[in-house]
Write a structure and sequence with these properties.
461 residues, alpha+beta, 7-stranded mixed β-sheet, 3-stranded mixed β-sheet, 14 strands, 47% helix, binds 2-oxoadipic acid, binds nickel (II) ion, oxidoreductase, EC 1.13.11.93, 2-oxoadipate dioxygenase/decarboxylase, YdcJ_bac-like
Amino acid sequence: MISQWRLRAAFAARLSDMYGREVPAYTTLVDVSREVNADVLRERGADAERLGSLGRVTAERHGAIRVGTPAELGQVARIFGALGMRPVGFYDLREAAASAVPVVSTAFRPVDEEELARNPFRVFTSLLTPADPRFFDDGLRTRLEAFLAGRELFPPELLALADRAETERELPDEEGERFLRLAVAAFELSREPVDRAWYRTLEKVSAVAADIGGVRSTHLNHLTPRVLDIDGLYARMTGRGIEMIDTIQGPPRWEGPDVLLRQTSFRALDESRPMREPDGTVAEGALRVRFGEVEARGIALTPEGRELYDGMLGLVDARLAAEPGAARAEVARSVWAAHLPATERELDARGLAYFTYRVSPARARDGSRPPAGLDALLDEGWVRAEPVVYEDFLPRSAAGIFQSNLSGEGSRDDAREGAAYDTDWLAGALGREVLDPYALYAAQRRRSLARVAEELDLPEI
Ligand code: OOG
Ligand code: NI
């Protein structure tokens, strides 16, 4: 039998092998990430593993896929459900970028601490929004929906095996092998000829629309290893001659604790694809649809912390608008130094970030009674706080990643009213609950406090 988490780990590893074979720069990215992680561990010792063991971080990947219809999304949910991954969070990218990105998204990931520690594989999954009239007029929407209704992304055998794995939380070896093979194949780039005229029609609206609705299959569009020093990685990749996008998205490098998520990527490269011309002939063409990304993860912020983060982004934008020559990273660093606490302890005390708590063994054995209240327990050394790593995504960075890889601007008609897509709508499309990331982090914190209270024989903390 292959257990659910082993299926997930095997799927992540095989997807990584497939992507490395097909997108060689990704292999360089993984190699450089390993080097950087080993160096950070050597320099910082155990402290380097404060937000995840080297074992977890080395195996850690997120992928991204894009699908066209609620029915396809429902099937994706079954495949990832088989791997113990559940939809977490709702991201609306339609307005988050200057270019046209007509999608709404969620991320499939494990949610339990033990499952995350075993293998945290996650997939950012976007769904096209053909009903949004800012992007698609009625005629194009009808054609697009008809095209999407006529394709099959996932073979029925894969879906049947997925349902079995989700229910039984394991598969016999042979079925497990078959499931993995079919699942990886479903996310490979297809060699089926692309209808050039149809692809171009959609590309005028948005390169993302063409990538999703212009072909009869889906594909992994990037895979992202995790690195412990993203500035170091960026410099080394550039040193190896790989052209990276201009910036590292998300928080700046600064003196205080790493929070949320920092990401950067290399651009999509031309890949040769057969194209069918209007006269029926097929000729080799090229499309740029696959790239590589890397990320560094920090501490999860509470809603208050996130509000502060979003406010700081606004301040950075305002300063840059006032001083167009200024370097974003410099401006961001000074805004951060002025507004964000520079220690974990203060982030915690101000309720800006999530921590879990553990009784420190030495103190519990010295015979005295613990004080009441978390602050006193921490101050007097009874309890230690450990940061909770951010397991999710950032809409503005996601939009930036989409945007950095779009070939054209596309078009969004802002004079029209957008269609309403929200968390409830997405849950309906998925046929499952969309979990709230904050609720997951808060529950993790509460569980740890309950354990501390029990161990120290205290009433509720
Ligand atoms: C997804 C982009 C979002 C991230 O890391 O923020 C993403 C896509 O390009 O389909 O993966
Ligand atoms: Ni990504």
